[in-house]
Amino acid sequence: MSALGKMVFFDPKLSTPVGQSCASCHKPDKGYADNQIVAAGANPILFGNRNVPSISYVSFTPKWHFNSEDGTWIGGFFWDGRSLTLHEQAAGPLLSPLEMGNQTKSDVVNKVKKAAYAPHFTKLFGADIWTDSNRAFEAILETLVKFQSSKAFAPRFSSKYDAYLRKKVELSSQEKRGLKIFEDEDKGNCAACHPSQINEQGEWPLFTDFSYDNLGVPRLLSSPFLNMEERYNPAGKNYIDNGLADNPNIQTPTIQRGKFKVPTLRNIALTAPYMHNGVVTTLFEVLEYYNSRDVDSKWGSPEVAENVNNEELGDLKLTTQDIEDLEAFLNTLTDDWQAAS
Asked: Model-level pTM?
């Protein structure tokens, strides 16, 4: 079934207009993200409101729940966690007017029904699969989930850092310094939200705790979404992204304004630009932002001033060398690494 899901994932004929597949925004060679500021639609004049997140490790997302110990929501899909399952997430881009542009489930089903791989659906789900659009659409989503959850989807846990954890390679001196800063509670303390070690259950580090945080990120005034017509963006250039607060699954939206899901740092070197709105261009600049947000006026005001994390970032007092070392370590998190012969 995962092989069939792969055919669906890479099929550019499933959008309206045709030409955009799931892989158009989730490129394998970009850590299953892309290098656009925000998601671009199948219709070239349409754009989404957020940067495309990497989905290389999306199948490892834990079940949506509230962590009462630190008062944060955990899990969920998309930047705001609004989809509670990978199955539900897979449907989102297919039916989004700003992405793949299909208006109904039947639109998607009718396209898959005409695809060269359609006989595989009847073989797997029965000859009558096309008689019920809802059932057929769910079958399409099931194949996508199987593919994204399979070993064939991406070369996961295959970075230089993974080889280091397996004691098959040494990190360079600079990479080791970066790792030390990354884990040092009195310096970078990045591992507080991006765990970097194998846990007590023997699970490989995913470099995210799947929580939500407001980093005080400024608005991107050049975002093409701000120019979308009123039916897509009623607020126009005054649009503010409330993040987790717009998630229909939470009961106290006000205290969640401006919070977005902590992304995995695996393959982070491939996925520029950064942050939920693509406002930060380079990985080095991300680290500079974490380091000096509260002491350098160049960063500007936060998009949402409430709930900003003022405890773990903003004035880390890292040197330029520290930042370069951190970047060198983050570059070891790119999958499909091969030792030099």
From this structure: 0.96
